[in-house]
Amino acid sequence: MACFALFSHFAFAGPKVEMETNLGSVIIELNSEKAPVSVANFLKYVEDGSYVGTQFHRVIPGFMAQGGGFDANMNRADTYAPIKNEANNGLPNNVATIAMARTNDPNSATRQFFINLADNDFLNASSRPPGYAVFGEVIQGFDVVQEMARKPTHSVGRYGDVPVEAIVIKNVTILD
């Protein structure tokens, strides 16, 4: 694991954020070199505090945990303008990476993100264009994300895979 962490340090040298949830904290290292638009966008939501009180609203074991777009009552959060898809940046959707969520429009990502619970090659632009843009990696606390995937889920209206007990983001802090 130490070798992996050393590799990650060189691959994702950039700002770090700590995301505190009601299940524990996760530290994410962002890659502003390969994903400058996505990182700047994510940090805009961090800096304005608008991730606080949102939840991981879609959690699928063996796939990913998605959050940042809905409050604990499944009310949609306000967004800034959509950003350009950076999925061709060479960063793969591997286990523990964080990527921008989007609709079918490749350039529709706003505030929602997901953390990969597995190597999801089919989300890469090289496998199935246009792909989903990776912009960082969980470097500490991935066990918290894995714990999310062990929680029971249900459907809420048209949304599936919603944790029965909300997994809420309590705070996000820039560490660097």
From TrEMBL:
Domain of life: Bacteria
GO molecular function, one term: peptidyl-prolyl cis-trans isomerase activity
InterPro entries: Cyclophilin-like_dom_sf, Cyclophilin-type_PPIase, Cyclophilin-type_PPIase_CS, Cyclophilin-type_PPIase_dom, E_coli_cyclophilin_A-like
Catalytic activity: [protein]-peptidylproline (omega=180) = [protein]-peptidylproline (omega=0)
PROSITE patterns per the UniProt record, alphabetical: CSA_PPIASE_1 (PS00170), CSA_PPIASE_2 (PS50072)
Keywords: Isomerase, Rotamase
Keyword Transport applies: no
Enzyme nomenclature, EC number: 5.2.1.8
Every PPIase cyclophilin-type domain range: 20-174
One of the GO biological process terms: protein folding
Top EC class, one word: isomerase
Role, per record: PPIases accelerate the folding of proteins. It catalyzes the cis-trans isomerization of proline imidic peptide bonds in oligopeptides.
Family, similarity comment: Belongs to the cyclophilin-type PPIase family.
Protein name per Swiss-Prot or TrEMBL: Peptidyl-prolyl cis-trans isomerase
Organism expressing this protein natively: Vibrio renipiscarius
